[in-house]
Structure formats: structure tokens, C-alpha cells
Amino acid sequence: MIFENADQLAEKCAEWQRILRLQDWDVITKIVRSDDMHSDGQGECTWVIERKEAIIKLLDPVDYSPRSPFEQDHERTLVHELLHLHFAPFTAKDGTLEDIAQEQAIQCFAKAFVELKRRCTNE
Description:
It contains 3 helices and 3 strands, in the order H-E-E-E-H-H. By secondary structure, the chain is of the alpha+beta class.
């Protein structure tokens, strides 16, 4: 799923915040160009844990790599970034084994949650 506009993204974020029990977080969502991202990924999340505030940026499809063999999915990326909020107190230093393991786990959970939701809504 690719979000067509900011309103659709905000609506889907609120839905997933309810599902993931993150309603107590104030989350701002944006679809941005690659120049506005700090990483090379499809999304990023920055937070202030003490205030439970976060900004989630998703990469504009215009900047997706046409050579990537992987499906681009805004919804899965959004869920991945929201899941980081649950792990925020345990965030490991970038590039460490713990960081890599946490990213892999979050990615696995995000894929599973989105796939399960899509299966349930199609039945």
C-alpha cells in the first residue's frame, strides 16, 4: 500500500496506534523526499521518550529505487516505525549486534502484523 496523501497517512497512523496500543503518543507523520531523510531507508522515526512525542517520515515513492527487488509498502514501513516507539527505551547503539537484532525483530513483527490485518480484512 502506498499512501496518496498526508491525510491518508495520518488516518492510517491513528488506526495503527490503536492496534499497537500507542494512542498515548503524539505522532506527526510526513511523506518526504529523500533529501529530507537522515537515512537511506524507506522510513525513519525520531522521538522524545519523556514527552511521548514522535515524528515519522516515510519516503516519497518518487524516490524509491527502481532497481530494488523488494516491494515498497508505506503501511508496513509505518508499522515498523511505530514499533520503534515500544522499543525506544531499549534502543541499542547503531551498528551493534543488538541494534541489528532489534531491527530484524521489528521488521519481522511489522510484516506479520500488516499481513495478518490484510488477511483478516479480506476474509
